């Protein structure tokens, strides 16, 4: 019988052979930079922004709403001065984009249900119709009986 030696998922994700390691390291770097940026911003504003990335000397910041984005743009030059002394990054521009925080998906729509009396009335109406398509549509509608939601 073969014995299993389970390994933690983090072992695979952090291994050098994994392409995910690079992605995870990049995510960690963005989180660290976000915390650093937030430390240089006033409290209400810092809660409504995050770092989107750094490329070619441009720091991309993401704001929740247009109002927070406008306030964030005002602080851009100061952020460049405070963050640029780090040897691994030479920033010369701040770009602010707007992206609302993740929203929960809408609950699935439920089809309306008819009362038994309404369904019976639709069935009777369908049986007296001359138009077969309209009659079939009314019968399909009549089958939607059940508790109202």
Description:
With 149 residues, the protein is α+β, with helices and mostly antiparallel strands. Strands 1-2-3 form a three-stranded mixed sheet. The protein is 48% helix and 13% strand. Helix 5 (116-127) packs antiparallel against helix 6. The protein starts with 8 loop residues before the first helix and ends in a 7-residue tail after the last helix. It folds into two domains: 14-98, GMP Synthetase, Chain A, domain 3, CATH 3.30.300; 110-149, no CATH class. It has helices at residues 9-13, 19-39, 43-46, 66-83, 116-127, 132-142, and strands at residues 49-55, 58-63, 93-98. The protein has six helices and three strands, in the order H-H-H-E-E-H-E-H-H.
Q: Any idea of the CATH topology of the largest domain?
A: GMP Synthetase, Chain A, domain 3
Q: Note poorly predicted spans.
A: none
Q: Roughly how many Å is the radius of gyration?
A: 29 Å
Structural class: alpha+beta
The chain-level mean pLDDT equals: 82
Major sheet: arrangement of strands: 1-2-3
The biggest beta sheet is recorded as: 3 strands, mixed
The figure for the number of domains is 2
Order of helices and strands: HHHEEHEHH
Estimated share of beta-strand residues: 5-15%
Total number of strands: 3
CATH hierarchy class name of the largest domain = Alpha Beta
H/I helix tally: 6
For the record, give the distance between the C-alpha atoms at the N and C termini, rounded to a whole number: 54 Å
CATH architecture of the largest domain: 2-Layer Sandwich
Percent of residues in helices comes to 40-55%
């Amino acid at each position: 019988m073969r014995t299993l030696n389970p390994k933690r998922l983090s072992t695979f994700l952090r291994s050098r052979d994994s392409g995910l390691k690079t992605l995870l390291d990049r995510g960690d770097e963005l989180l660290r930079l976000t915390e650093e940026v937030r430390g240089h911003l006033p409290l209400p504003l810092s809660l409504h922004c995050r770092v989107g990335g750094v490329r070619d000397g441009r720091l991309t910041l993401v704001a929740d709403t247009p109002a927070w984005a406008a306030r964030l743009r005002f602080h851009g030059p100061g952020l460049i001065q405070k963050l640029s002394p780090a040897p691994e990054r030479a920033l010369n521009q701040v770009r602010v984009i707007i992206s609302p925080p993740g929203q929960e998906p809408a609950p699935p729509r439920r089809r309306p249900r008819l009362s038994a009396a309404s369904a019976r009335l639709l069935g009777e109406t369908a049986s007296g119709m001359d138009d077969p398509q309209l009659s079939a549509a009314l019968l399909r509608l009549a089958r939607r009986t059940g508790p109202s939601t």
